[in-house]
Write a structure and sequence with these properties.
Chain lengths: ~450, ~1000
């Protein structure tokens, strides 16, 4: 029993916590939760908590279903929305095989492994996500078949006394209560759309925070009688919900992406990292954009980044080098704009980091940046300038990923296979659907 | 006597140069007698002469010493012959030459720590009370401190070199060096304080920060070398100051210490002050408060860090704070053996001790090489950690004191302790003398003959009369290394035996609890059970028990390194018991460590081999020599069987002997495989030949038996199919066969068919029936004729004509495919040739129709979906799974069917040669065949490993870590690499599947 574990047990005692939820994530990125009575926590620290892994998507091989969840005491938090009556708390877990080894199928472990690789190369990875989501009246569509947003405000609009206002205030204070600092929040372009930025932190903590964040947002929405969705593209006519993420690598105290005097102050390391991401982006798109619906966002126009390109403050580029105040070399970073809000953050960050590190290892050359709005170029122009498209559907993305040695290496063979199998099943199911679009367009004329 | 002879007699090496120096004006008029009687005492007379001439030039008064009585000059000559660096120091600071007037004593005595401390503090004009502050600062202080330090060093070297027995003196010398280093740190701290107060910080604030310097490593243990990095950790305490200010002052103060000791100044620096053993190593803050240290050790520290703390001692700075630190970490150190992962990290450390030495230095290493100082230190520290938890007398820092305490407490035998102690002291003296020459941090044996000779002399003690000799030095050193190596391996276990066997040897008193703690620390999961086995093996007065008492200490170590030490020990006990009183086996292990190590590795990893060894323990003898492990050729096996058959005409008896030979050869192959003598392909061929000999022998027996009662009507042929056809089977595989016969001219077809059936049935039953007495632990050879025409519905044996008729009428694509592997195995040679002529046009068809290609693809697809066990994960199925054996083989066979007619090079029954031929003929790209080959070999290897370790299902990649670990070791991975094997297998087979799909189903081609 170490100090942190003791701390958890003491807090449970002192605060009279009634339930301890153990959280972990399946391959798709859904949060799974097991509730423990306080008396069982000590045992879970010592030996882990046994559970049947076969019921969890992509976690266990079919014939090897016994798994252990071992809580990480450093992630202990009291959950504020449960109120003071029945105090509930949570801890994230690592998934172990019955003999106590890290399970190769645990997404959290996949990210940890990639971070360890970065550490071996001398880097610490920091990330900072901007998470978009829609606030709806309910999870049921309205009479026209479209979801119903809570309000109809636009970018940076102030809506006096709106539901959204209450919602944001409560969400922000709850997030602070579970130790997640929120950097900035404003209204995005779509009706009912919100964006909340999480302050930058190391990649594993950010991924944990994203999982917590989604849960908090959903809970708070329920409390304020509305419904929050992270679906990549809930409306055909409004922008999708992305999870733009800023990445930076640090070597000790210094930002490895910064080089004073270089073009855009970008160091060679940064350029190689970006080159790695751009070259391998099509291979890992199935991970960062994992649903059939994700591709409606990627190809839905607007500011969605559908082509391989990078730019300095170019809002249509897949990879953006943001402006920052002169003299703030520490904040040098790059922003990947492809991920959507429904991605599994552990796997997504692992593939992005892995691709970037690959670029550094192999010394990739960064192609020239794009200054035009890529969307407005003709197909021939894009081809001429080397802006290849991202996969256009989940099916395409799966095909490309299947042939990727890099993604297999990053995810590990077991997650790689389970993930592909799961996504293929998704696609097969989708393909059988007759959609409202087809009926509307074809039924009356055929 | 000529000058040349005189020089040689005095031990000079470079005669010409030395003659020139002897003629130097500084030596003019000196008494040659006196001079030479001095050089005789110098370890390296050439060096001494050159230094002397240069010194006399600077300090003419030294001539008195040279000219005076012999004893008067002794210190001078000894130092000049042993250390160029010290001679240079005196040249830089001639006032220190007065020390050469010291008379030498056999007992060198020791300067107390407080004298050294006072002296060094005085050199920088600091008082000697607690937390003193110097009046000197900057380069002046550095020079004064360093000069004073070296003066004491010279004084110590003079006394050390004059000692009668350097080994006896070694601990005292090490202690004084550590005290001197502590005094230097103390004085440096005093200077650093003064500099800080003058500079960036407020003097009162600086005074409010208390800082303790904790010595680690050899400095902490009071057994320092003449020159080495001094390992330290800093603790601060400043209750009255703001935490961050205190931290800044403490850090600056610690950095100041380093500067005072080692920054460049007119007098060279002393040594590196190395603070990297601190919490978080290089990345951690340089100074911490006591609480912060403790927090770290409680939460984050690794096992090796506790091993390092064993040596922690407050050496300078605030004494009270230092003592508090010592008191607070002690309980952490002594409970560290109860931490999770202690056993694993101990094993990892044991491996690390021998790994990671640059190979070109390995043979010259005194410290890190096999049998080096590190081995001794590691052994002693581990035993301290394991037993010091209970027994407080073991909580000492010095290696020599720890050895004494371990011996006193009965944790190691008294004889072993004496040997270990002597070896340690000897190696340390070598190290001291080597370093002294240039005051350079080195642990390498010199290479040149003169340097070795000088070392031999300087390490021998002042009164030694033997002539120095490089050869003798190396001999003694090698002997010592071997001794340490042996002790290092045996010392953990030897006392266990004394406890287990209830020996009355007074020297060892290891309690049962202590014995179990030690076994657990060394990797035994069930120490109580292990103790029982050890008891059984060592109790009694038999010769066997006596030998085992002698051997087990080393064997237990080897077993402890294996996958499953407990199973290994049990296996050894069974083996030993089945051998009864014959002890050649133990003698062999005693005389050949390779055999012992191999045996231990096998016993811990393979149930299959352990069982075979248990029933034929005499086979253990093969482990002694690689020659005995070479698989017998088919011809010699067949010859042996024929001899047995002729001497034992009764069929049951003859076949029993054949089966015994087969079992014996299978064991031999497995042993050779485990020793890494065979490649996977060679294993497959050897096993196939072994089975072939058995079938051939049995066929002869069966024919003789049948012909004894009736006239011979027909010739019988056994044709190998499947993997046996390709000579690539695994341990205990079935043999796929077809039976063919051809009636003799004039014989009745019906009767001939009956006779052939009788013979083949007899062959099968002779091979499979239980024998009397039973052939224990045998993997029975089953003959499987399911690939025959019409499968299980068809007749078991057909005549050649019947085959011809059948193939003419029916011949299906899958049968053609199966025939690709057909190879006559036993029976009439001519019939074999005719059979092949019959099937060649079928298996190598001139035109393999597109519809047939489709048929083969369809069957394969159906096999994939139907033949896998229900619910199985295809990616872990070695044979039928994704990218496994059958994917590779089917692709090869499909291409053979299509192209072998036109390209005779493709006509082979074996998979890998066929792959090579396909690449050679351009049907598959090289890189694709490489992928397929890798996958096929790894899957074959894992199947073998599964059988060898005694797993339940040989066709599945296991998923429990323990089983994976066992398989991984068999596949040549290092310890702890089970998960790597799993990942490798999944990756390799995924790629193989990709290649397979592209070429077999034609996905993505053209």
């Amino acid at each position: 029993m170490n100090r942190q574990q003791e701390f958890v047990l003491r807090t449970i005692e002192e605060r009279d916590v009634r339930f301890v939820r153990l959280w972990f994530t399946d391959v798709v990125g859904s949060m799974k939760s097991v509730a423990l009575a306080p008396a069982e926590v000590e045992g879970a620290f010592d030996e882990g908590l046994g559970f049947d892994g076969s019921s969890i998507e992509g976690l266990a091989r079919i014939f090897e279903s016994d798994m252990l969840a071992q809580p990480d005491p450093s992630t202990f938090q009291i959950l504020p929305w449960r109120g003071d009556e029945e105090q509930t708390s949570r801890m994230f877990c690592d998934i172990l095989t019955p003999d106590g080894q890290p399970s190769a199928a645990d997404p959290r472990y996949v990210l940890k492994r990639q971070l360890a690789k970065a550490a071996d190369m001398g880097f610490t990875c920091y990330t900072h996500p901007e998470i978009e989501f829609y606030l709806l009246k309910s999870d049921q569509p309205g009479p026209d078949g479209e979801p119903v947003p809570v309000d109809r405000a636009g970018y940076f609009d102030h809506v006096p006394g709106g539901v959204a206002q209450d919602f944001r205030r409560t969400a922000v204070s709850m997030l602070e209560a579970v130790g997640i600092s929120v950097e900035f929040s404003h209204h995005e372009a779509g009706p009912g759309q919100n964006e909340i930025d999480l302050r930058y932190a190391d990649a594993l903590q950010t991924a944990d925070n994203i999982m917590t964040f989604r849960t908090v947002v959903k809970e708070v929405a329920l409390m304020t009688d509305c419904y929050a969705t992270f679906m990549p593209k809930p409306f055909s006519d409004h922008p999708g919900s992305g999870m733009h993420t800023h990445f930076s690598l640090f070597e000790g105290d210094t930002n490895a992406f910064f080089e004073a005097g270089a073009e855009f102050q970008l160091s060679a390391t940064a350029r190689q990292f970006m080159a790695g991401i751009l070259r391998h982006a099509p291979e890992f798109t199935a991970v960062t954009n994992q649903f059939v619906n994700s591709y409606k966002r990627l190809w839905g126009g607007g500011e969605a980044p559908s082509y391989l390109s990078w730019g300095h403050n170019n809002r249509s580029a897949l990879l953006r080098v943001p402006l920052y105040k002169p003299g703030k070399g520490q904040s040098a970073r790059i922003e990947y704009r492809g991920i959507d809000s429904a991605a599994n953050p552990y796997l997504s960050y692992a593939v992005l980091l892995g691709a970037g590190l690959k670029g550094i290892e192999e010394g990739y050359e960064l192609p020239p940046g794009a200054e035009d709005d890529i969307e407005s170029l003709s197909a021939a122009e894009r081809r001429a300038m080397g802006h290849a498209p991202l996969p256009s559907s989940l099916h395409d993305a799966i095909r490309v990923m299947e042939d990727s040695e890099l993604v297999a290496e990053i995810l590990g063979e077991q997650v790689f296979e389970n993930f592909l199998r799961n996504k293929q099943a998704d696609w097969n199911e989708y393909r059988q659907q007759v959609t409202a679009f087809e009926l509307k367009k074809n039924l009356s004329i055929l | 006597m000529s000058l040349t002879r005189r020089l040689i007699a005095a031990g000079f090496t470079d005669l010409e140069k030395s003659e020139r120096f002897l003629a130097a004006p500084e030596l003019a008029g000196m008494d040659q007698e006196r001079l030479f009687s001095g050089f005789v005492r110098s370890a390296n007379p050439d060096m001494a002469l050159q230094s002397l001439v240069r010194l006399l030039d600077r300090i003419p008064s030294l001539a008195e010493l040279v000219a005076g009585e012999q004893e008067e000059g002794e210190a001078l000559f000894r130092v000049l012959g042993a250390s160029e660096a010290l001679a240079e120091f005196v040249m830089r600071h001639p006032e220190n030459a007065e020390l050469f007037h010291t008379g030498l004593r056999a007992e060198p005595g020791q300067v107390p720590a407080r004298t050294l401390r006072a002296s060094l503090l005085e050199s920088v004009q600091a008082g000697s009370g607690p937390n003193p502050v110097a009046r000197l600062t900057g380069p002046e202080a550095y020079v004064q401190l360093r000069t004073r330090y070296r003066r004491h060093l010279l004084d110590l070297a003079i006394r050390d070199l004059g000692a009668a027995s350097p080994e006896d003196t070694m601990p005292a010398v090490g202690r004084e060096l550590a005290d001197l280093a502590g005094a230097a740190l103390e004085a440096a701290l005093a200077v650093s304080r003064a500099e800080l107060a003058e500079g960036a910080f407020d003097a009162a604030d600086v005074a409010a920060v208390r800082l303790a310097v904790i010595g680690m490593g050899k400095c902490g243990a009071s057994e320092l070398n003449y020159i080495s990095d001094v390992d330290v950790i800093y603790v601060i305490d400043a209750p009255d100051l703001d935490e961050s200010l205190a931290g800044r002052i403490g850090t600056a103060m610690a950095a100041g210490i380093s500067r005072v000791i080692n920054a460049s100044a007119p007098e060279p620096g002393l040594w590196e002050v190395d603070a990297n053993l601190r919490p978080e190593g290089k990345d951690g803050p340089l100074v911490r408060t006591l609480d912060s240290h403790l927090n770290y050790y409680r939460r984050w520290a690794q096992t090796w860090e506790f091993q390092a703390l064993l040596k922690a001692r407050a050496v300078a700075g605030d004494a009270a704070l230092g003592r508090r630190y010592e008191d607070a970490v002690a309980p952490l150190i002594w409970s560290s053996s109860e931490r999770d992962g202690f056993v694993e990290s101990v094993q990892a450390m044991r491996r690390r001790v021998t790994d990671h030495i640059p190979s070109h230095e390995e043979n010259r290493q005194i410290k890190l090489g096999k049998g080096g100082l590190r081995d001794v230190e590691f052994t002693v520290q581990l035993l301290q950690l394991v037993h010091g938890r209970i027994d407080e007398t073991l909580r000492v820092r010095t290696t020599t004191a720890a050895i004494a305490a371990l011996s006193e407490g009965g944790y190691i035998g008294r004889g072993d302790a004496a040997d270990l102690d002597a070896a340690y002291r000897y190696l340390r003296v070598l190290e001291h003398r080597i370093q002294m020459v240039h005051m350079r941090r080195t642990h390498l044996m010199p290479e040149s003959e003169p340097a070795l000779r000088a070392l031999s002399k300087s390490s021998a003690g002042a009164l030694a009369l033997v002539r120095p000799s490089a050869e003798r030095l190396l001999e003694t050193w090698q002997r010592t290394k071997r001794l340490v190596r042996r002790l290092h391996e045996a010392i953990f276990y030897r006392p266990l035996l004394a406890t287990a066997a209830n020996l009355s040897e007074a020297e060892v008193r290891l309690s049962p609890e202590a014995a179990q703690a030690r076994l657990a620390a060394l990797g035994y999961a069930d120490p109580r059970g292990a103790m029982k086995h050890i008891e059984a093996l060592t109790n009694g007065i038999s010769r066997r028990a006596a030998l085992q008492r002698q051997l087990l200490p080393v064997l237990l170590g080897w077993l402890g390194d294996g996958v499953d030490p407990d199973a290994g020990l049990l296996g050894f006990r069974r083996l030993s018991e089945s051998l009864g009183d014959s002890h050649w086996f133990l003698g062999m292990i005693r005389d050949s460590s390779a055999a012992g190590e191999r045996l231990c590795q096998i016993l811990t990893s393979s149930r299959f081999i352990s069982e075979l060894l248990e029933v034929s323990p005499e086979s253990t003898a093969w482990l002694g020599t690689d020659k005995d492990l070479q698989p017998s050729s088919f011809d010699s096996l067949w010859q042996e069987m024929r001899a047995k058959m002729s001497r034992h005409p009764r069929p049951a008896e003859a076949v029993r002997l054949i089966r015994l030979i087969r079992r014996r050869e299978m064991l031999r192959i497995a042993l050779a495989d485990s020793a890494g003598l065979l490649s996977q392909e060679e294993v497959g061929r050897a096993l196939s030949d072994n089975d072939r000999a058995a079938v051939l022998g049995t066929l002869h027996v069966a024919e003789n038996e049948v012909y004894a009662g009736e006239e011979q009507l027909t010739d019988v042929l056994v044709v190998a199919m499947g993997r046996q056809g390709g000579r690539e089977i695994g341990y205990g595989s079935d043999a796929d066969v077809l039976y063919v016969h051809r009636p003799l001219p004039g014989a009745d077809a019906q009767a001939a068919q009956g006779q052939a059936e009788k013979i083949v049935q007899l062959v099968s039953s002779l091979l499979q029936q239980p024998c009397r007495p039973a052939v224990q632990a045998e993997r029975v050879l089953e003959l499987d004729a399911a690939l025959r025409p019409e499968g299980r519905q068809g007749p078991l044996v057909r005549s050649l004509d019947s085959y011809a008729g059948y193939y003419e009428r029916w011949s299906l694509a899958w049968e053609a495919q199966a025939l690709l592997r057909a190879r006559p195995m036993a029976g009439d040679d001519r019939l074999g040739e005719d059979f092949l002529s019959l099937v060649d046009p079928i298996r190598y068809p001139e035109n393999f129709a597109e519809s047939d290609v489709r048929e083969i693809r369809r069957i394969k697809a159906r096999v994939e979906s139907e033949r896998l066990p229900r619910g199985a994960d295809p990616s872990r199925q070695l044979k039928l799974g994704r990218g496994g054996l059958s994917d590779v083989e089917w692709l090869v066979q499909l291409l053979q069917l299509q192209h072998a007619h036109a390209y005779p090079a493709l006509r082979t029954t074996a998979t890998l040669p066929a792959l090579d031929a396909l690449a050679g003929a351009g049907f598959l790209p090289e890189q694709d065949t490489a992928v397929l080959r890798e996958s096929w070999l790894l899957a074959s290897r894992i199947r073998c490993a599964n059988v060898i370790r005694g797993g339940r299902n040989p066709d599945v990649l296991p998923s429990s870590r323990r089983e994976l670990e066992a398989v991984a070791r068999w596949c040549g991975y290092d310890a702890g690499q089970g998960a790597v094997l799993e990942e490798d297998y999944l990756r390799i087979t995924r790629r193989a599947r990709g290649v397979f799909e592209r070429w077999f189903y034609g996905y993505g081609v053209g």
